[in-house]
């Protein structure tokens, strides 16, 4: 038998305003990131003989990488591996960027190189996963794999690579 009817409380627009504004800002930043990433990728691909147009458009500082010396160890190296279309729902394109992060360390007097490299990679992993959508710039991050590689040449060094997949959307 029915005893009472209760109408659920619907929050006012003012009560939800901050949530709506945050959601809209997040969507705008995702859109902007996707547009800029697509423009960047297209410019690099179409003008592969020079990075000058990309540097100028995005106001970047072009730097030349050289070998990493013993004094620059430990180092965290980041390499984009691939950027592929995962699916195309409606007018959006969901993409998956695979990034390789390598923690590189040489032996010091107190710690083995693999210990130093492991600490560096753990710190990078923690920073990366502290915000799973990178402040609204992507849909998510996933660790793909991690492997160990200790080399013994003139000085012991360790390189610990890890691969991450960043999923994002473009128009």
Keywords for this structure?
5-stranded antiparallel beta sheet, 171 residues, 3 helices, alpha+beta, single chain
What does this protein look like?
By secondary structure, this protein is of the alpha+beta class. 33% of the residues lie in helices and 31% in strands. The longest helix is centred in the first third of the chain and has 34 residues, at 13-46. The N and C termini lie far apart (53 Å). The model has no long low-confidence stretch (mean pLDDT 80).
Q: Tell me, what's the shape?
A: extended
Q: Count up the helices.
A: 3
Low-confidence stretches: none
Strand count, sense and closure of the main sheet? Answer: 5 strands, antiparallel
Q: What is the helical fraction, as a range of percent?
A: 25-40%
Mean pLDDT: 80
Tally of extended strands? 5
Order of helices and strands: HHEEHEEE
Rounded to an integer in angstroms, the radius of gyration calculated over CA atoms is 23 Å
- What structural class is derived from the secondary structure elements? alpha+beta
Report, as a whole number of angstroms, the end-to-end distance. 53 Å
Task: Please indicate the percent range of residues in DSSP E strands (runs of 2 or more).
Answer: 25-35%
């Amino acid at each position: 038998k029915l005893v009472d009817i209760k109408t659920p409380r619907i929050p006012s627009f003012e009560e939800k305003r901050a949530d709506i504004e945050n959601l809209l800002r997040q969507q705008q930043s995702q859109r902007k990131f996707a547009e800029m990433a697509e423009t960047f990728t297209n410019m690099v691909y179409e003008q592969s003989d020079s990075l000058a147009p990309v540097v100028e458009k995005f106001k970047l500082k072009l730097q030349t990488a050289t070998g990493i010396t013993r004094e620059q160890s430990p180092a965290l190296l980041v390499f984009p591996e691939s950027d592929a279309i995962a699916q195309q729902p409606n007018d959006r394109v969901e993409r998956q960027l695979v990034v390789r992060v390598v923690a590189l360390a040489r032996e010091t007097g107190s710690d083995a190189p693999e210990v130093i490299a492991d600490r560096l990679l753990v710190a990078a992993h923690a920073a990366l996963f502290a915000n799973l959508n990178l402040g609204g710039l992507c849909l998510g991050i996933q660790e793909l794999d991690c492997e160990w590689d200790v080399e013994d040449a003139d000085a012991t060094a360790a390189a610990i690579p890890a691969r991450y997949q960043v999923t994002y959307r473009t128009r």
